[in-house]
Amino acid sequence: MSKLPVGIQVYGLRDLLENTPEKFKEVMEQVKAMGYAGVELAGLYGLEPEYVRDVLQEVGLAAVSAHVPLAELMADLDKVISDYKTIGVEYIAIPYLPDEYRHNTPGYAQVIAEMKRIGEALQQNGLKLQYHNHDFEFVKLQDGTFGLDDIYTQVDETKLLVELDTCWTQVAGVDPAEYIRQYGARCEVVHLKDFVMEGDPKNLYQLIGTEVAEEEGGEGFFQFRPVGFGQMIWEPILEAALEAGSKWVIVEQDEHYGLGALEAARRSREYLRILGW
Fold it and tell me: Is residue 217 part of a domain?
């Protein structure tokens, strides 16, 4: 069976590294032993880029990508480029849009201009910019299109790639497999994230550590799960990634609910291996 290399988003392992960055090599060795081929970084935990590069090379993990907050990209793009070129990543992803930059706000035009600027600068340095969605980008605009599509329309595909988060796309009521097919080769990296949801739960972004105003109303249940242990149906999504010509799939689990970050990562990898990945 055809397959793509499987990486892991290090954000899901942050509890093992935030207060003990000296464990970075040990954690990366365990990730490699599980069968992951690469990592997508989410901060450096105070470690020097050269050290991160050397550890990943020694362990045998590809430095696929890095999630870098928009504010950091806007404030000191030169340093971001220098650090991540040193590490050797191919992609840098904007992981989240703060409220003030979202669709239908005065800041939206500014963020589109910034994406164009950042994408151009990365391109000149041999890097590629991606945008990683949640569900709020699937807001319907006045012309009936999704806000996420408006981002990809306004910022040319040579400056901005699609890093589709399959969980949040599904939460928005959109078929992730169809959305991957819609953007085809622009989806070079696909996020695999599983979940369970019942009813109409609110305040989901509090689960991923963002500070947002609390919504009232809505009753239900939502939790993240290892890939294959939630309600996502993965075969069509993986097949769509293959058809699109994607280069990587990246496992991400934001919270683990007592299971343990490494155990959750192991279960995700084992499930994908059962599917031939």
Answer: no
- Its domain, for residue 182, covers 6-197+225-274
Contact call for residues 119 and 157 (beta carbons, < 8 A): no
Tokens (6 digits) for 133: 């969605």
CB atoms within 10 A of CB 198: 11
**Residue 159 one-letter amino acid:** K
Domain count along the chain? 1
Q: Which two tokens stand for residue 276?
A: 């031939």
Q: Cα separation of 210 and 114, whole Å?
A: 21
**pLDDT bracket for residue 5 (50, 70, 90):** very high
Q: Checking phi first, is residue 142 left (phi over 0); if not, alpha (psi -120 to 50) or beta? A: alpha
Determine the straight-line distance between the first and last CA of the chain, rounded to whole angstroms.
8
Tokens of 116: 């164009």
Q: How far apart are CA 32 and CA 45, in angstroms?
A: 20
pLDDT tens-digit series, residues 62-101:
999 999 999 999 999 999 999 999 999 999 999 999 999 9
Confirm whether pTM is higher than 0.90: yes
